[in-house]
Structures are given as C-alpha cells and as structure tokens.
Amino acid sequence: MLRRMLGTAAASLLLAFGAGAEELSGPAPGFSLMSRSGELVSLEDLKGQVVMINFWATWCAPCRREMPHLEALHQRYSNLGFTLLGVNVDENTSGVEKFLKETPVSFEVLYDPANEVSALYDVVAMPSTVMVDRHGNLRYMHHGYQSGYEHEYQAQIRALLRE
Amino acid sequence: MAATDSGRGAAVAAAALAALLALASAALAGVLPEERADVLFHSYDGGGVTIQGPSLLVRKQFADKFSASANYYVDRVSSASIDVVTTASPYTEERTQYSVGFDYLHDSWLLSLGYTSSEENDYSAETFSIGVSQDFFGDLTTLSLGYSVGSDEVRRRGDSAFSAAVDRRQYRLGLSQILTRSLLLGFSFETITDEGFLNNPYRSVRFADEESVLGYSWEAEVYPRTRTSDAAAIRLRYYLPYRAALHAEYRAYTDTWDIGADTFELGYTHPLESGWTLEGRIRRYSQTAASFYRDLFPRSGFQNFMARDKELSTFDSTSFRLGASYDVLRGGWRFVERGSLNIAYDRIRFEYADFRDVRLGGPVGEEPLYTFDADVVQVYMSFWF
Amino acid sequence: MTPMTPMTYGTGMLRAAGLALIAVLPLAAGCAIEPWVKPYERDRIADPIMSWDRDPVSSAYMHHVYEAREGARGATGSAGGGCGCN
C-alpha cells in the first residue's frame, strides 16, 4: 500500500516536471457551460471520472495542431472513466462550427465566449490543459502545446485512471 | 547602369533587408514564423522604366524550434528613364537576388539569421543579418533588435578596370505593444551607415556652360564617401468591430546628407464573407534635397560634392493602392492548410520641385519641373501548410 | 556646404532609441505586471488581417520599389502582436 502510494507520488512528480507541466492542488473550480449540442455541461456532474479540460481557440495554431491528439486520447480512454472537455474561447462561435466541420472531434466542445471559465482557471497560455482527478481535484496544468506533449497527457491520464 | 539610380547600394541593401525581413516575417517571439510558400510576379512601369520579374518564398518549420526560409527574386529591367535618355542610351539588364533565413525559438526568445546575395552585371551585394526578438508582460510587448552588415562591389560597364566597394551597417530596434484587444502599436528605429563609393558611376551633374550649344554641359557627379541615416516610425493597427482593420503609419527620416523625409500611410483591409478580402491604401512621401544636390550648378567643379540624382532632390510621391485577395483551399488539400490568390495595383505619382525635365527644352535652369506616374502590379499566390 | 560628419550626427536618433530600450528593460527584468489582454482574449489580434505583415513577399517588393526611388530608407517593419500562443 505504502509502496503503491510512493510509486504513484514518484510517478506524479516525474509527470509533473515533464515538458510544460505544473503540479496543482485543491478542488477544481466548478462551472457550467453550454455545449455544441445545446446541453448544459457541469464539471460537478463528472465527479468520479478523470477530466481533462483543454482551453483552445480556432485562431491559435498550436491548439489546432493539438486537436487530432486530443481526439485520439478521447477515443482511447473515454470508456475507461475519462472525459475530455474542449473549452473554446472564440469570441465568435460561428467560426468554431466551420472549423469543426472540417476537423470533426467526438469529445464535448463547450463554449466560453465571455471567458469566464478561462479567467476562473487562470489560463496564462493558449492552449492550456488541466487534469482533474476522480475526486474533483486539480492535478496538473500544461501551458502551451509542443510536439510530444500528447505523451505527457497520456501518461497522466493513465496514472489518474489507476488511482 | 542600374535602374535604381544613385544610392543603388542603398536600394540593393533595402531590397536585401526587405527580403530578410520578409523571411523573418513579423516573427512573433514565442511562435516561429508561419510556414508558407509564395509565388509572386511583379511589374513596374513608369518614367520610361519597365521592370518585371518573379519573387518566390518558401518557409518550413522543424521540430517546433527551427525554421528555415529561402527567397529568389529577379528584376528584369528595361530602362529609358530621364537620366538614361539625357546622358546615355536605353539599356536592359537583369538583377538576381537570393536570400536564406534561419530562425531558432527558445522559450520566448527568437533568434534570426539571414544572408542575401544580389548580382547584376555591374553591381554585386552581400548582406548578413542577425536579429533577436523577445516577449514581455504576458506577451503583450515584443522587443526586437537587429544588426546587418553588407558589402558591395560597384563596377562599370565598358570599363573592366573600374571596381569600387561599399560597406553598409544597419542597426534596428523595434518595440511592439498590444494596447487593447483591438489595438496594436509599434515603434521602429533604424540607423544605417554607408561608406565607400556611394554614387552611380554613370551619372552626371549639369552645370551652366555658355560655350555649349544647349547652354549647359555635364560632368561626373561627386558624392561624400560616408552617409549615416536615422529613421523612426510609429504604426497603429486597429480592429473594427465588424471585422476589418485600419492601419496608420508615420516615419521620420534624416541623414548626414541633409535629406529630410516624412512618410504617411493609411490603409484599410476589409474581408468579405465570400472569401474575398479587399484592401485600400494611400501613401504620401515628402523629401527635402541633399545639401549637395542641384539641378543646375553655376559652373564646372562648383563645390566638393555635387549631385543631380532626382532621388536626392526635393519631391513628393503620392500613391494609391487597391488590392484584392481570394481565399482558396479553405478545407485544406493534402499538406496545404489554406491558400490565397492575390492581385494588387499601385499608382504612384512623383512630383519634383527642383529636378527639371531637360528633354522638354526651355531656358537653361527654367525647364519644366519633372513629374511622372508609375503603375505597379503584383499578382501572387500564397499557400500555408 | 559640406555634410555633417556621421559621428556628430547619426548618434542622435540611436541615442533616443537606446533610451527607450533602457527604459523598458529594467521593467521587463523584474516587474510582474498583469497582462490586461489575457492570452484567451487575443482572437482579434491573432486575426490575419491584424498582422503587421500579411504578405511579406509583396511588402518586401513594395519597400524595394520605394527605396530605390526615394532618399529615405529604414524603419519599415514591425514585429509582435499575433496569437501569443505557447
């Protein structure tokens, strides 16, 4: 038991100090946003699942490059207790629809045009990715995207799923 | 003879630097310059000079840390300009320019290196350039510094023994500030020093000569061997709420030849839903003459330095620009993310206050002042990947 | 009339630019100023129509057209703006 905890702690530290990752603690701020499909999605409803919140915009080139990798992660882990929320911060949401038509994704895309949730999560880079564990606590935050970050995401998702 | 008239070293240097800056392309610290390929055809027709040619650019990123770019540019010149016609005979020539650039991104630092080489039958130029760019204050402020060093060789057609050198150094400082969600402000400063053979080996100055049939005669121009110039510019870009952009720019210029110049520019960019983007621009340039410039000197060898290059005279240039571009491949095609087809037309009017058109005849020193219009057309395709 | 020597003249504007630079650098070094335009509020700035130089090949050519015929040169470009990503 202790060894497992130490192992997880060590793994967490290694994961946290990987490229662009910051370790976080405390409960994840709650929010409710309208999704693409017209439903209201709340973070509270997802307690019990590992949640990855990705803040993105159509005007952000690294965000667009990251999308296929996020889609792959969602398809791989979504029936294992993992949910990916794509929080879009575009001021004008019609451009988002056009983009998603050309680059479709199967994970939930939420609209935050007033940037309330972005401010709540203190987003300091575009894109930003936050990992929330099953208990609703903040665990990791990634600033920006560079090739290879998707491996970090994958390792963190697996570790959080195993908890 | 170069169609670019006197100060051709400066002109070639400017072309080289412009090419290098094009390669760096408003490099944003924190993000590498965008990957793209451009094919452009340019055409200039004015004042008896026609120049056409291509300009090609390719830029590619590697490993999210590096980018490399290359530009190939040609001017095919056919010149019967006023200077050529009054003192020589029309000519054609070709100038070829190659540039390569390299960028390295580390955190929010961007380092840029560039090299340009320009060749024509009587002028060679090489420029090395280095630049550094850094973001501050949450990426709202960008500071950039640049340094270029160039060396040219000036030759003279029909005189294989003639060879002279020009050394150039350029120092640049830029500061860019995001003021609001919709407003950008930029400052740039640039100091350029030239040393060497700065005039044109074919050009002459005019002096009053009673013994001549025309009432005037020609002799070789004589320039100082150094020139230092300072330019400072301020520019604004404003996003209009219905999705359009307005930009305004002012540049002040002075140099050790006593040339003073002001440049104003105003532009408007309007994208339409259909994928078309329209652009309009007006530019006004006013210059006061170099201290050693005169259209007509009272006698031969009047002073140490003498010039009659209209580029150093007192004049205004006013230009209007209309551009249209159409977005293509919006959904992407293989490795191409999007593309655009573009056309731009500029009409420039030059009006000289102390350069006279001696072809039109008249009392010596009172010939009509010279003025001419130029049409500039650019047709180009751009692809982003 | 002989032109002023480069040494006495040319440093004026460069000195002004240098002062501007000196004014900014210490601020940049330590100050933690909160950006008033957040990274997620940069959609307008990141729009291609707000780019300082949307068509670099075309603008390089136009600068060459002007500088070959006018006495002034320099200070023609600006960097910065954009999406500010990463």
Describe what this molecule looks like in 3D:
The complex is a heterotrimer of chains A (163), B (385) and C (86). In chain A, 37% of the residues lie in helices and 23% in strands. Chain A has helices at residues 2-16, 61-77, 94-102, 116-120, 149-162, and strands at 21-23, 32-34, 40-42, 50-56, 82-88, 108-111, 128-132, 138-143. In chain A, strand 5, helix 3 (94-102) and strand 6 form a beta-alpha-beta unit. In chain A, helix 1 runs antiparallel to helix 5 and helix 2 runs parallel beside helix 5 (149-162). Chain A is globular and about 50 Å long. Chain B is 6% helix and 63% strand. In chain B, the strands form two sheets. Chain B has a 16-stranded antiparallel β-barrel. Chain C has helices at residues 6-9, 11-30, 43-46, 56-67. The termini of chain C are far apart. Chain C has 86 residues and is mainly alpha-helical. Chain C is built from four helices and no strands. The chains are: A alpha/beta (163), B mainly beta (385), C mainly alpha (86). Chains in contact: A-B, A-C, B-C. Chains B and C meet through helix 1, strand 1, strand 2, strand 6 and strand 7 of B and helix 2 and helix 4 of C.
The spatial strand order of the largest sheet of chain B comes to 1-2-3-4-5-6-7-8-9-12-13-14-15-16-17-18
The assigned structural class of chain A equals alpha/beta
Our estimate of the beta-strand percent of chain A is 15-25%
Estimate what percentage of residues of chain B fall within beta strands: over 45%
Strand order of the largest sheet of chain A: 1-8-7-4-5-6
What form of chain A results from the Cα inertia axes? Answer: globular
Low-confidence runs of at least 5 consecutive residues of chain A: 15-19
Q: Give the helix tally of chain B.
A: 2
Profile the largest sheet of chain A: 6 strands, mixed
Mean pLDDT of chain A: 88
Q: Percentage of helical residues of chain B?
A: under 10%
Low-pLDDT ranges of chain B: 1-6, 23-29
The count of strands of chain A amounts to 8
Write down the secondary-structure element order of chain A: HEEEEHEHEHEEH
Pair with the most extensive interface? B-C, 113 and 70 residues
Number of strands of chain B: 18
